[in-house]
Write a structure and sequence with these properties.
It is a single chain. This protein has 141 residues and is an alpha+beta fold. The chain has one domain: Cytidine Deaminase, domain 2, CATH 3.40.140. Helices cover 29% and strands 26% of the residues. Strands 2-1-3-4-5 form a five-stranded mixed β-sheet. Helix 2 (61-71) packs parallel to helix 3. The longest helix has 16 residues, at 6-21. The protein is globular, with a radius of gyration of 14 Å. Bound molecules: tetrahydrodeoxyuridine. Tetrahydrodeoxyuridine is lined by residues 26, 29, 31, 33, 49, 51, 58, 60-62, 95-96, 99.
Length: 141
Amino acid sequence: MSKPTTKEIQAALLDAAQQARENSYSPYSHFKVGAAVFTRQGHIFTGTNIENASYGLTVCAERNATFAAVGAGEKDIVALALVTQKLPGAKVNSPCGACRQVLAEFMPPNAPIYMAVLEGKKRTVVTKKLKDLIPLAFNLS
Ligand code: THU
């Protein structure tokens, strides 16, 4: 098969993130999040948010997807998609600050972040670069 186009990768990632969102364990917030990452090797890994009765132990969808990729030996992530439900007053839901720092460890600054909100069957996508979300990420180099 020929190399997928950016558009094809974006669509596949959004579909995978939306599917992963179905597995969200979020009985406390009732806010379901799905994430999917695309690796340099051309694979998709997914994650969803997993909450805990001890609230602070919750892990976001973006980190679960990232750690699934890295744990499988694929630590170069070239794109990420995120799917959430529409919140009143919010046009887009973006990754939290902790996730941005984790993403900066494994993604280049120009990598695209596709952020989608669902309203029924309608999916609205906003795209930003990682460096727009975390311009001064902490790093030790
Ligand atoms: N959450 C994510 O999974 N990703 C984010 O970027 C923001 C928040 C989850 C954590 C918690 O389960 C719920 O959404 C509400 O904060």
